Amino acid sequence: xxxxxxxxxxxxxxxxxxxxxxxxxxxxxxxxxxxxxxxxxxxxxxxxxxxxxxxxxxxxxxxxxxxxxxxxxxxxxxxxxxxxxxxxxxxxxxxxxxxxxxxxxxxxxxxxxxxxxxxxxxxxxxxxxxxxxxxxxxxxxxxxxxxxxxxxxxxxxxxxxxxxxxxxxxxxxxxxxxxxxxxxxxxxxxxxxxxxxxxxxxxxxxxxxxxxxxxxxxxxxxxxxxxxxxxxxxxxxxxxxxxxxxxxxxxxxxxxxxxxxxxxxxxxxxxxxxxxxxxxxxxxxxxxxxxxxxxxxxxxxxxxxxxxxxxxxxxxxxxxxxxxxxxxxxxxxxxxxxxxxxxxxxxxxxxxxxxxxxxxxxxxxxxxxxxxxxxxxxxxxxxxxxxxxxxxxxxxxx
Length: 398
Ligand code: AMP
Description:
Layout: E1 5-11, E2 15-22, E3 29-37, E4 45-50, E5 55-59, H1 66-78, E6 87-92, E7 103-104, H2 107-114, H3 124-137, E8 143-147, H4 157-160, H5 166-169, H6 180-190, E9 197-203, E10 207-213, E11 216-220, H7 241-252, H8 258-271, H9 274-279, H10 285-293, H11 297-321, E12 326-330, H12 331-336, H13 338-345, E13 366-367, E14 376-379, H14 384-396
Parallel strand pairs: 1-6, 6-8, 9-12, 12-14
Antiparallel strand pairs: 1-2, 2-3, 3-4, 4-5, 7-8, 9-10, 10-11, 13-14
Helix pairs in contact: 1-3, 2-3, 6-14, 7-8, 10-11, 11-13
The structure holds adenosine monophosphate.
């Protein structure tokens, strides 16, 4: 195989991130990366960097909608200034119960995944939009979907199954998990010495944690949707269902229809809760840390709730794994927030987890456990795009 530039597309609710890798001849070299950020605003950001970090494009265009944003990416990649892709990999949070394998994208497959938007309501609408646009703007180029849920498919039934009436389970309601491409990339980076009993905490604006045995997912905190599990930036995480019913009844007093009430409840649980809801200040850990320094009690409570919940999940996953060899922190908070790592690991000494304060005083990849810790604790940034490229190359070969 000669030159094979692979475009990776990773869309969020207000941004489209992308990268192009050279993947011919077993090679995996990042050529460029970029993003269009601030969709829905008058002054967004559009940038492209080369592999050395040099900015090749740096613009602040108006980004009234997704169409304008994605056209900027497509036009740049068609301009001749950058390597034109020969295959495209799309990151997708959840394809629903019928789409669980990474695969070639057809229009019918996009329709099928879109019919399960409720399984990742913040992520699916833009992801399917970008897939349709990519088929249109890059005609003749194979597109593949790479799912976050793919990594979690190895969970046993007892972890997947939800305690609900069978008729809903039959509709595909169960635990799927998310951040799977990140978890897969951590396991990939640990090869060939993947520990038998591993816990990875992906702590970003969305946060989740997974128990991994011999490289395979045993359990994960996120559920049917990314709203479940650990409290995160704007999401509740797991919560007494009675709380949602209480809020729903309050909303229903003024809602115009059942579907209006459901939409409003979704906004409360997914966009107004979590660190933002408790702190009444921000979903951004940096803002909360600054506020804590100034004595803000609500920010302190929000962050305590975050670290306390994660420590509880680590404890339960150690029980599930029947021990622990390694704990890995990743994601924006996991990689950068020294205090969160320290606070999570405080009191976990009984589980053999002991941090070295000096080693922990870093941002980015490092081993941060003390020499006497029974469990190795590491910080490893994810390599999600690389995993997507690997799947695309594998699928192209089939
Ligand atoms: P992600 O979703 O993985 O991009 O992570 C976003 C989260 O990482 C936000 O809560 C940020 O506040 C947090 N974060 C990024 N950089 C830092 C930093 N230097 N210190 C603390 N938190 C950070």
